[in-house]
Specification:
With 128 residues, this protein is mainly α. It has 5 helices and no strands. Helix 2 runs parallel beside helix 5. The longest helix is centred in the N-terminal third of the chain and has 33 residues.
């Protein structure tokens, strides 16, 4: 059976490949849209997980003693605060590429968010 992560990555690469087959500018826009939206969701996922662990048992998380835990916490916060500038810079780069790139950028962003919605619905209505 194919893993869900592999299937999601393959479908994203297939969308980028189809866009490149149509036009090189469209492929660039699709790649930047999928990449930017994926990074955005990944940063939100990490920050939500870190806050969830903090609220679960705050007494343990305030006792960060290891150097690895401190570095990981700093990187999570850095990713969270850099997600919007990265996303906007991808949009600006795509706009400068040309007309079909911006449309494909937005389609790529939509694909990532619709995949997230589909995953959430499948997980909530799936077998117990």
């Amino acid at each position: 059976m194919i893993s869900k992560k592999i299937l999601a990555a393959a479908s994203g690469l297939a969308a980028i490949g189809i866009a490149f087959a149509t036009s090189q500018k469209a492929g660039i826009g699709m790649a930047l849209g999928i990449g930017g939206a994926t990074f955005n969701l990944w940063a939100i996922w990490l920050m939500t997980g870190a806050l969830g662990r903090l609220m679960k048992d705050p007494s343990e998380d305030f006792k960060i003693e290891t150097k690895k835990a401190k570095i990981a916490s700093v990187l999570i916060v850095l990713a969270f605060f850099s997600k919007l500038p990265i996303f906007l810079s991808f949009a600006i780069i795509t706009r400068r590429v040309g007309p079909p790139a911006l449309t494909c950028f937005l389609v790529g962003v939509g694909l990532v968010y619709f995949a997230l919605i589909g995953w959430t619905l499948a997980k909530s209505y799936g077998p117990p």
